[in-house]
Amino acid sequence: MRGRPYLPSLLRHRYRGAKAMYTKILVGYDGSEAGKKAFATALELAATHGAELYVLAVCRPPEIGDDVETEAVIENSRRHHRGLLAELKPAVSAKGVKAHFELAVGHPAEQIIYDADRHGVDLIVVGDRGRSTFARLLLGSVSKQVVQYADRPVMVVR
Question: What's the pTM?
Fold first, then answer.
């Protein structure tokens, strides 16, 4: 081992010409603290593995309302989420990661899974807001639904 730099085992395979563990990573981002942690984790993984990073923000339409109100709410939400995604671009540039920033409208878990399928990602990264067990059982959670229905590895960041 003399003269050879120490590399964590996760990184070692990369330098032996082996295929990277992840080539495409999708992270669901909503601007929350849990979302920020998930983004930071996904960005670090993408930088480590030389993977492309897909950052998805989902605008959730209102449950009720007429068409005019719904369109206004969705447009306002899009504007808000575009601002959230714009804040992430400097961090991505600093790491030298190839990233794609996308907005979708719909239920977050459905859109995350759909986007993962569409891009053929190797890993989905989502944040967990840390709701109580009762609230999770009653309301469900996006991370729980993604873990339950996705057909690929999902990393939940707390």
Answer: 0.82
